[in-house]
Amino acid sequence: MAFGSLFRRGPAGGRILVAFASQTGAAERVAWLSANALSRSAKNLVRVAALGGLAAEDLGDAGILLVVTSTYGAGEAPDSARAFVRKQMAQTPALKGIAYAVLALGDRKYDATFCGFGRGLDRWLASGKAKRLAPVVCVDGDDDTDAMTKWCEQLTRLGASTSVEQLMPGAPQDWTLAERRLLNPGSPGGEAWHIALAPKDPSQLNWTAGDIAEIWPRNPQTEVEAFLARHKLDGGLSFRWAGHWMFLRDIIAHCRLPQDHEVEGISLDWLVERLEPWGLREYSIASLPASGRMELLVRKAVKDDGSLGLGSGWLTHTSTIGGVVSLRLRPNPNFHAPPDGPQILIGAGTGMAGLRAHLLYRAQKKLGDAWLLFGERSPACDLFHGEDIKGWQADGTLARTDLVFSRAQSRGQYVQQLVAENRAEIARWVERGASILVCGGLKMAAGVEEALVAILGEDRLDQMTQDGLYRRDVY
Question: Which among 49, 204, 261, 284 could bridge 5 via Cys, Cβ 3.0 to 4.6 Å?
């Protein structure tokens, strides 16, 4: 298989460019799997490239263009493709003679902007007279087998040898809830909890700083067993569900429990087909495998009616110590460690989780020369992992630490304001090769980016993104 951004001139048939734009690694993963499947045909010359590093002319050089992209924020492009949007999609391309298809990954809970960037990219390619091989395929979450079946069929028509199972993420693993501790009692903000999970097998301790845990919320086991007993169902039966073979007991655990009248008189197969799965919840991993367990920092969400958020409520309140937590590890290459060197880490709230993993990594490698800028609500309650911070200051991992609190009595401030105030020093760190990591909520990240653009300029920040020196884990 040949990799790279550009094609050498060759036969028109079978030249396939697979381009990806990925925020958390899911789109990149599917792109590579698709390319591997296509390359098994001797007729195909397949190349893979990040969309953000291409120009419209590069796209036009492909005989067939396949794009796999996620959507970030309110229908926007992933970080790595923002420069492509600004510089390439602002003009109409000349793409007559190529054929294309788009696979767009998204989450239907953002209904108005569901797969917004993928749909926009599809329209832009069509505006350049490229031939659409099939309508844009929109994928809802990680387990949308119907959408992935359509994509698999498209690949097969192009000569690929693959299956939906090979393109889907793996099945979840069972871990054990080992510890749950409230980190900010008395905080004026929401409760933040330290969650620790123990592996059932040491081989599960396999991730990199920056990676994500996809948690599968569960119904209480007592309710699951009562449901099975009430309807005389065998929980040990296996069914194909969400792309994997699972026991009925586990399927029921991960779905809204039907009312009794919804179950009466229907076949078991129909029941399984009609079950409404709980959605996955993603959390930045706050520890390294060397610790022997996975640690998370979870904000307990409380809805307007007083009920708890599905994932956070289950982890912080409903689940039991020693009970099962099902999760799937998701590599997140866009937030993996940049090349060793000076590093600026910026975040707020539970964004400390992702930053903590990177600081643990730097401490492990004895890198030093890191600068932490972190914001929360109250200095009395909300300095998460404060003992870790003191330790990193003492051992030289942190060369500088700036903490701000929005509800401090003396001077309330947000981390994006702190970034703006330190513009000269941030510019000096970047000039000597510092990378920048940002982790936390969308609003904070947008404010931080606005401040960084004012300091460094949009083109410089775009280049740092392409070089892997500006990376974000934003939610």
Answer: 49
**Does residue 12 surpass a pLDDT of 50?**
no
Q: How many residues does the chain have?
A: 475
Residue type, 97: G
Cross-strand partners of 213: 283, 329
Query: What confidence score (pLDDT) does residue 66 get?
Result: 97
Is residue 379 very low, low, confident or very high in pLDDT (cuts 50, 70, 90)?
Answer: confident
CA distances from 256 to 165, 233, 251, 416 (A): 25, 16, 10, 40
For 326-372, the pLDDT digits (tens) are 999 999 988 999 999 999 999 999 999 999 999 999 999 999 999 99
- Number of neighbours of residue 413 by Cβ within 10 angstroms: 16
Residue 14 pLDDT class (50, 70, 90 cuts): low
Please answer whether residues 95 and 132 qualify as being in contact, where contact means their C-beta atoms are separated by less than 8 angstroms: no
3-state secondary structure string across the chain: CCCCCCCCCCCCCCEEEEEEECCCCHHHHHHHHHHHHHHCCCCCEEEEEEHHHCCHHHHHCCCEEEEEEECECCCECCHHHHHHHHHCCCCCCCCCCCEEEEEEEECCCCHHHCCHHHHHHHHHHHHCCCEECCCCEEEECCCCHHHHHHHHHHHHHCCCCCCHHHHCCCCCEEEEEEEEEECCCCCCCCCEEEEEEEECCHHHCCCCCCCEEEEECCCCHHHHHHHHHHCCCCCCCEEEECCEEEEHHHHHHCECCCCHHHHCCCCHHHHHHHCCECCCEEEECCCCHHHCCEEEEEECCECCCCCECHHHHHHHHHCCCCCEEEEEEECCHHHCCCCCCCEEEEEEHHHHHHHHHHHHHHHHHCCCCEEEEEEECCCCCCCCCHHHHHHHHHHCCEEEEEEEECCCCCCCCCHHHHHHHCHHHHHHHHHCCCEEEEEECHHHHHHHHHHHHHHHCHHHHHHHHHCCCEEEEEC
pTM to 2 decimals?
A: 0.85
pLDDT of residue 204 exceeding 50, the answer is yes
Which domains occur in the chain, in start order?
15-167 (3.40.50.360), 173-330 (2.40.30.10), 333-474 (3.40.50.80)
pLDDT interval class at 409 (50, 70, 90): low
CA-CA distance, 267 to 265, in Å (whole number)? 7
216 and 242 Cβ atoms separated by less than 8 Å: no
Tell me the pLDDT tens digit for each residue of 88-106. Answer: 999 999 999 999 999 999 9
Confidence tier at 387 by pLDDT (50, 70, 90)? very high
